[in-house]
Amino acid sequence: MKTLLHVCCAPCANQCIDALRGQGHELTALWYNPNIHPFTEYRARRNTVQEYCRMVALPLLLDDEYALRPFIRAVADQIETRCGTCYQMRLDRAAAEAAAGGFEAFTSSLFISPYQNHELLRQVAEAAAERHHVRFLYQDFRPLFRAGQDRARELGLYMQKYCGCVFSEEERYRKPGQIIR
C-alpha cells in the first residue's frame, strides 16, 4: 500500500519505518512540524530526518516552513490543551498531502511516543482522514519506542529532550507543582 508517513523526528520514525516496510507498505515520509521551537531545534530535527531518510533510501516530502507564528496563534488561547491543535495541524497536513499525492493511506511516527495523548491523536487523525477522503492507517507503535531510541543512539542521530513546542520545553524545566506566571 502506498503510504505517507508523517515524521516528527528520526528517533521516533526509524522503528515505524521498519515496521511499515516489513508489512509491505511503499513509504514516503513527510516533514511538517510547525510546533518545533526554537529554530535551532527545528533545524537539528529536520536535518536529522533528512539524513536518516537518505540512509534508509526513503523518499521525503519536506514542508520546510518554520511556522512558529502560525502555531503560536493557533494555540495562544488554549495553551494547556494545545496538543490537540498541534496534532490537528500536523495530521491535517499529512492527510491533505496524502490525498493530493495519490497515497492510499497516511499515518504518523507520533504514534510511537508514550508521551503523546494516543487516543486524542487517533481521533484527530481519523477526522483528518474523513475530511480529506483518504485512509488513516492506525498502528500503535508504542511497543517499539525504546528500540527506536536505542537505534538512534547507535546511529549517532540527534535526539531531542522535549516534544517540540516552546511550552513543552518550558515544562521540561518546571518543577512538579511549580506555577509559572
Describe this protein with a few key phrases.
181 residues; alpha/beta; Rossmann fold; five-stranded parallel beta sheet; 7 helices; globular
Structural class determined from secondary elements = alpha/beta
- Low-pLDDT stretches are none
The CATH class is Alpha Beta
Number of helices: 7
- State the order of secondary-structure elements, H for helix, E for strand: EHEHEHHEHEHH
How widely separated are the two ends?
Answer: 49 Å
Verbal overview:
- This protein has 181 residues and is an alpha/beta fold.
- It has one domain (2-173): HUPs (Rossmann fold, 3-Layer(aba) Sandwich).
- It contains 7 helices and 5 strands, in the order βαβαβααβαβαα.
- It has helices at 10-22, 39-55, 68-75, 82-100, 118-132, 145-155, 166-173, and strands spanning 2-6, 26-31, 60-62, 105-108, 135-136.
- It has a 5-stranded parallel sheet, sandwiched between helices.
- Helix 1 (10-22) crosses helix 6 (145-155) and helix 4 (82-100) packs parallel to helix 5 (118-132).
- The longest helix is centred in the middle third of the chain and has 19 residues, at 82-100.
- The radius of gyration is 16 Å and the shape is globular.
- The model has no long low-confidence stretch (mean pLDDT 89).
